[in-house]
What does this fold into?
Amino acid sequence: MNGSDDTATAFGAATTVRSLGDGTFTATLRAEWAIGTHPHGGFLVAVLAKAAAAVLRERGEATVEPLAVSAEFLHAPALGPVLLRTDVRKVGRRATVVAVSMEQRGRSCVEARVTTGRLPMRRPEWTDVPQLPAEPPSGALQLGGGDLSEGPFHLAKSCDVRLDPGTAGFLAGRTGDPPRLRLWARPRTGEVDVLFAMLAGDLNPPVVVGLGHRGWAPTVQLTALLRTRPAPGWLRVFVESRSVHEPWFDSDATVVDAQGRLVAQVRQLALAPAPGA
It folds into this structure.
């Protein structure tokens, strides 16, 4: 990639928010961070979290790391500029809460509550995370294929995502597999950070793809818990659904860093495309 491409696709640059000085910000939703023509949901949540941190820094707050984000998806925004409105709802010694809305053409598209504070960095007192090799093996399947200029998964230009073939039977046309996926993810430019760890919990194909549900699965609600800053290297992501019930399904992602630490938990409620769509 040349320098201009790096600027366009790097996660930190793509989630940049620009202050208008009154608690509102602007951002640009880029095609490189979309699924087809739809801006990626996890990317939208990362932009909202960036705006929450930015307004707190403007107020002189020193500790603005995201601890939790809860987002409601009201309308799918289009690619291009958006307006971000912030409202600081609580300033606390350990936790501060900011409401953020993303607007486009006068309509609210995504609304979130972002809780910030100081991420823990010491060794956890107790932890129980799934096991997966720290790096994808040679047989792991690249999401997006070899030609990164084609296909609807535009994030393949910005993110290196590898699927465990044991959970990717849908790529061979198999259906009826349990809705579980295992994958590895990292940005193509730069190192992982806490917001990329949150994004990684939403980088997988819809977990119901193993049941034959193919197509866009719009997120209705997403809640992310951020647990610690990730170490450099690959992120390991474990995704499963507890219930696929009529059009609705849940998707629970556990994100583990290169040192085997839990760094993010992402749960969402989404609408499944019709089987065979």
